[in-house]
Amino acid sequence: xxxxxxxxxxxxxxxxxxxxxxxxxxxxxxxxxxxxxxxxxxxxxxxxxxxxxxxxxxxxxxxxxxxxxxxxxxxxxxxxxxxxxxxxxxxxxxxxxxxxxxxxxxxxxxxxxxxxxxxxxxxxxxxxxxxxxxxxxxxxxxxxxxxxxxxxxxxxxxxxxxxxxxxxxxxxxxxx
Length: 176
Fold this sequence. Notes:
alpha+beta, six-stranded antiparallel β-sheet, 2 helices, 6 strands
């Protein structure tokens, strides 16, 4: 009996022997590719989930900032309409206070909880008002710009909060 080597075997039989050793490789390669594609899909899903969370956090923070801005607007309205005496000094505060307010969309605003006071207080008096041409005569009022401190805090429905520390200018008559 002679040894059978691939050279001595018929061509058809050699092909069958080679195919027998290669039959499982296609399954192995396709399973590996399927596993890699699954990992890519899961990581993409995780990235999309985190992006949505981040967008939600940013949206709530922006909503809180808008609420705090509404508080500044109310503070400016109080400053505009409040009647104050002519003997103001830095550190004096307005009688009208910024009230805590809840809005329809679940946000709220009010005075800054970290501020030393919830009042709108004068910081300083500055240059003469440019909009009023007044002579400086004894006994006549002097019109000066006054600088006021407004501190508000806004809170969004999701718990995000934002604080705004604003200064405002108002032309005010002082006794000469």
